[in-house]
Write a structure and sequence with these properties.
It contains twelve helices and 21 strands. By secondary structure, it is α+β, with helices and mostly antiparallel strands. It folds into three domains: 290 residues, Vaccinia Virus protein VP39 (Rossmann fold, 3-Layer(aba) Sandwich), CATH 3.40.50.150; 89 residues, no CATH class; 65 residues, Nuclear Transport Factor 2, Chain: A (Roll). Strands 5, 6, 7, 8, 9, 10, 11, 12 and 15 form a nine-stranded mixed sheet that branches. The protein has a four-stranded antiparallel sheet with strand order 2-3-1-4, covered by helices on one side. A four-stranded antiparallel sheet has the order 13-14-16-17. A hairpin with a 6-residue loop joins strand 2 and strand 3. Helix 1 crosses helix 2 and helix 4 packs parallel to helix 5. The longest helix has 18 residues. About 3% of the residues have low confidence.
Length: 476
């Protein structure tokens, strides 16, 4: 049996009851399930030897853990390795979000919920994905670029920085930093780090975060609150606090009995259990997870309400001028993405970017107050006197593949490419920029100069291992 802190055992046994706790303790000693979520904009073929995560339309359990590092389709953004319980976010979005909207994923790294939101939100929506930690924000940016959705902005800011945006967001997802009890069997270090004092620190910090961002939510908007922990202080008690402090309404989510999701727990005051959703490894096939959905009240004199569309223009931001492709930009760039005329193009820092025109005013506002790391599609980059197609273009779901000659790589060649090694093109491949693919999925660009091809794969993303295994991967 896994060794747990005595204080955790005592508290959790009292919280869940002796029988449920013993089942949980046993489950924490077993191997965790392995799961991933497909990017349906890139991969629509069937997966063998898997079972679907019941609450996720594109989530799957794997029979064993492959070496994802050596799967080219993992690097191409065809799937995201995500814990199954956290895919439950899909149910809240599908049941309550039907109109184009502006969404903030506040504590977004490494990107599981943001990539999921990018796939779930109605067409015409805009996602702002934020992470305060610099190194984690870089990982978040990488994962969202690989996912390929153009209607995404990535920022690196503290929650307090968002107070400049009163009543701006239709939905705020707050997967808040927590004591991590739900990760005990996947991360044994989290057991060593757990203390009652840390739980105390966490729930207080969570309330500070919620207080900072509550005013940025539109009246009638949704707050989706989640943790990967079991205790009631960080879960039910924080939900009760939000309901009392801000008069928020707790919303139910339809579930199936076979999912074995447990509800809220009672508190010492004898209050009735709340309509919240707990994932216990002893009951559900996944790690520990907690989620609740709350709606902000609508005031009678409110001028704006949630889900009113992106036609709403923030009065506290300067309007962004509509621009076409700058004269110095190669006109061919417009043909490199699908529906290029529906995007606003600009050149900054020697890069050409395209951003959905409907989100221009929001992007301008974000730039005014936040540290923006990425927005839309980086289409090309100036190297010397030449504009070269950017790797983010190859990853984008809007890439116009027939704008470039393409070469299909073998598995070994794909690994060479992902290690950023020099490739040699076969006879007949035209000189110039070439899109390289694996299983017909774009991996990136090279420049064929005849006797060799210069590799444009990002240096910081390359596979650093020199090992080349037998062909690895789950997507066949």
């Amino acid at each position: 049996m896994i060794h747990l802190p005595e204080a955790f055992i005592t508290y959790t046994r009292n919280l869940l009851g002796n029988e449920t706790f013993e089942k949980l303790h046993q489950a924490l000693s077993e191997n965790p399930p392995i799961s991933l979520r497909l990017n349906s904009q890139k991969w629509v073929r069937a997966i063998k030897d898997t079972h679907q995560v019941p609450w996720s339309s594109n989530g799957y359990y794997l029979s064993e853990r492959p070496t994802f590092t050596f799967d080219p389709l993992f690097h191409a953004g065809c799937y995201y390795v995500q814990e199954a319980s956290s895919m439950f976010l899909e149910q809240a979005i599908r049941q309550y979000v039907q109109q184009p909207c502006v969404v903030l994923d506040l504590c977004a790294a490494p990107g599981g919920k943001s990539t999921h939101l990018a796939s779930l939100l109605p067409k015409g929506s805009l996602l702002l994905s934020n992470e305060v930690n610099r190194s984690r924000a870089q990982i978040l940016t990488e994962n969202l670029i690989k996912w390929g959705n153009p209607a995404v902005v990535v920022s690196q800011n503290d929650p307090a920085d968002f107070t400049s945006f009163p009543e701006l967001f239709d939905v705020i997802v707050t997967d808040v930093p927590c004591s991590g009890e739900g990760m005990f069997r996947k991360d044994t270090d989290s057991i060593e780090e757990w203390t009652p004092a840390n739980v105390e620190t966490c729930w207080k910090r969570q309330r500070r975060i919620l207080a900072d961002i509550w005013r940025t939510l539109k009246p009638g908007g949704l707050l989706i609150y989640s943790t990967c922990t079991y205790n009631a202080l960080e879960n039910e008690e924080n939900i009760r606090w939000i309901m009392q402090e801000y008069e928020a309404t707790l919303l139910p989510i339809s579930t199936e009995k076979t999912w074995n999701i447990t509800g809220g727990v009672s508190n010492p005051a004898g209050d009735k259990p709340l309509s919240v959703y707990r994932f216990l490894p002893s009951h559900t096939r996944g790690e520990g997870f907690f989620m609740a959905v709350l709606r902000k009240p609508i005031e009678e004199n409110s001028e704006v309400q949630a889900f009113s569309g992106l036609d709403y223009q923030p009065t506290f931001s300067k309007k962004r001028k509509k621009t076409s492709a700058p004269p110095s930009q190669p006109s061919s760039c417009l043909t490199w993405i699908k529906q290029g005329l529906n995007y606003s193009w600009e050149i900054t820092n020697n890069q050409i970017t395209a951003f959905p025109s409907y989100g221009n005013n929001y992007l301008e506002l974000f730039r005014k107050h936040l540290h923006i790391l990425h927005a839309g599609i980086t289409v090309a980059e100036l190297k010397g006197r030449d504009w070269i197609p950017h790797h983010a273009l190859a990853m984008s779901t809007l890439l116009q593949k027939d704008a470039f000659p393409s070469v299909e790589l073998s598995y070994t060649e794909a690994i060479y490419y992902l290690r950023r090694e020099v490739l040699v093109m076969k006879p007949g491949v035209p000189k110039g920029f070439v899109l390289v693919t694996y299983k017909d999925i774009p991996l990136g660009f090279v420049k064929n100069i005849g006797n060799r091809a210069n590799n444009f794969y990002p240096q910081e993303w390359r596979i650093r291992s020199g090992h080349i295994p037998a062909e690895s991967g789950i997507l066949r």
